[in-house]
Amino acid sequence: FPCWCRFSIRCIADGIQGNWKHKMKSSDIQLVQYLDQKEQACRLIAGFWHDHNGYDQTLQEAENNLKEWTQEEHLFLLVLLQDTYIGFAHLGSRGGNIDWLEDLYICKEYQRHGYGHRVVCMVEQMVRTWSDSMYIEAAARNKDAVRLYHSLGFDVLNTITMRKDFKPQDFETAAQETIDGMIFQVRKVRT
Fold first, then answer.
1. Which residues are bridge partners to 93 per DSSP?
2. What is the rounded distance in angstroms from the CA atom of residue 95 to the CA atom of residue 108?
3. Residue from 104, 90, 102 nearest 148 by CA
4. Confidence of residue 15 (pLDDT cuts 50, 70, 90)
5. CB-based contact 10:25 (threshold 8 Å)
6. Strand partners, 26
7. Angle subtended at Cα 128 by Cα 124 and Cα 129, rounded to the nearest 5 degrees
8. Alpha-carbon span 152 to 148, nearest angstrom
9. What H or E segment, with its residue span, contains residue 149?
């Protein structure tokens, strides 16, 4: 692996994903499994929705997400930089192993420093211990995320999510893609 993916794994794993208690470290950041850091986790979840969708989530909504994302078949990891939680990785199962990176978030002030890159590498190394593949979805309009994931080797299309806009006048075309001769538009909300 490239240097940014090298890290020492400090974990005790009993082979059962749901009981995987660990910390993973990559130079200055750690992935810490959620246990009782509710205030920090809810703050990060609210930041995720605000930064990704412009939606200001209530504390109750953030708590509901946290409850859902920490149930069986999920793994919620906080990203710790020294003594500050700067993001999270939420993994889930879609009928098999916990091998879907459902959500990744690094606070805006910590973005563009390679933390997201390193978190994906750390999560990938962990998922490799129990699955043959790892899956990631990204909104087509989130070109930074798509570029990041592609640069890390996520270059196989697994499923395609298509959308039909009922009020197309509320959206603008950001790009156009062709797959197997069919033209698709990548749209974002008109600002």
1. 98
2. 32
3. 104
4. very low
5. yes
6. 29
7. 130
8. 6
9. helix 143-151
DSSP state letter for 146: H
Distance CA 44, CA 120 (A): 17
DSSP letter assigned to residue 91: E
CA angle at residue 72 from 48 to 17, to 5 degrees?
Answer: 100
37-69 tens-digit pLDDT: 999 999 999 999 999 888 999 999 999 999 999
Residue 5 CA: distances (Å) to CA of 29, 123, 140, 148, 172: 12, 10, 26, 14, 37
Residue 118, SS3 per DSSP:
helix
The whole-chain average pLDDT of the chain stands at: 85
Residue, of 116 and 5, whose pLDDT is higher = 116
What gap in Å lies between CA 190 and CA 8, rounded to an integer? 45
